Amino acid sequence: MFSDAMNDVEELIDKLGIVVLEDKGSFKELVETVRRYSLLPGDALIAITARHYGIDTILTFDEDFKRTPWLKVIP
Questions:
Q1: Domain-located, residue 1
Q2: Helix (H), strand (E) at residue 73
Q3: Which string of b and e fits 13-48 if b means at least 16 CB within 10 Å?
Q4: CB-based contact 53:74 (threshold 8 Å)
Q5: Averaged in consecutive runs of 10 residues, what is the pLDDT profile of the chain (75 residues)?
Q6: How many CB atoms within 10 Å of residue 67?
Q7: Which domain holds residue 69?
């Protein structure tokens, strides 16, 4: 069942031409970002990765990202 769901996700990613980016940043940068912006580690990793790739806008309902000065949040 899980395998079928993952196959569906992979197919959708391919159909939509989505580019999956590798996570970026060091552990030290992750810890600093968690502390400075009061983010959960997963959110901090997303924010760090976005900054690394020059991504300045994120579509999310998670308002925690508004605490990162380099990301514009679009709900």
A1: no
A2: strand 72-74
A3: eeeeeeeeeeeebeeeebeebbeebebeeebbbbbb
A4: no
A5: 91 95 96 98 98 97 98 97
A6: 15
A7: 21-73
